[in-house]
Amino acid sequence: MNSLKDKVAIITGASRGIGRAAALAAAAAGAALVVNARGREKLEELVAEIEDQGGKVIAVAGDISEERIARALVDAAVERFGGLDIAINNAATLGPIGDFAQISLADWRHTLDANLTSAFLAASHQIPAMLARGGGSLIFMSSFVGHTAGFPGMAAYAASKAGLIGLTQVLAAEYGPRAIRVNALLPGATDTEMTREFAKTPEVREHIASLNALKRMARPEEIAQAALFLASDAASFITGTAMLVDGGVSINRG
Predict the structure, then answer these.
(1) What is the pLDDT of residue 1?
(2) CATH superfamily of the 8-245 domain
(3) Whether residue 32 has pLDDT greater than 70
(4) Catalytic choice (81, 140, 144, 157)
(5) Is 175 a catalytic residue?
């Protein structure tokens, strides 16, 4: 296990899927958590589960694409736990799926706000708090979509996730001298509620799994462990990376 003992972490999009798995794993690894999602009910269920297992956690519900929420998460970490060491910026939306020419400007902007602008806002508040602690680990949840594969019908999603890689590289170079590591994690197809929003039948999910070299989807817990590795001191010399955790879909041709 990658130890996060005595670390304080923010995890967004924590009420389901990869974010929820990351929150449970980070708490088990010893981190004190500030968890975020838009829906309060599932977030409170997560808090109760972590507290039942002896973990330290506080929830801040709200839309991370709003700056007041990005600020509130950092304020909660500092006021409740004394600072911030780790941020796993995981919250995202699929956005419109379909013909590029039919994407409305409103849908395009909403997707980029949810996936890319939210990361900018989060980092703009997280980085000063990490600097105050003498360093930290900042992780953006990107995707192989828009990086090693172009899937028809996913233009807005791909553009927003590719943008996170550029942001990662610049921030890693800018803040590396001040002991902040910045990495992007690029999951492959993962068996989450979001995946099932577009892979609605067993046949479609089987086809998606077949694209991977491992011929299966990831479990959310597998992606969460990769995030914890990047967050931990085990990755102390890793920064500026676009780390694929994609089951080999990027190299598979058969």
Answers:
(1) 55
(2) NAD(P)-binding Rossmann-like Domain (3.40.50.720)
(3) yes
(4) 157
(5) no
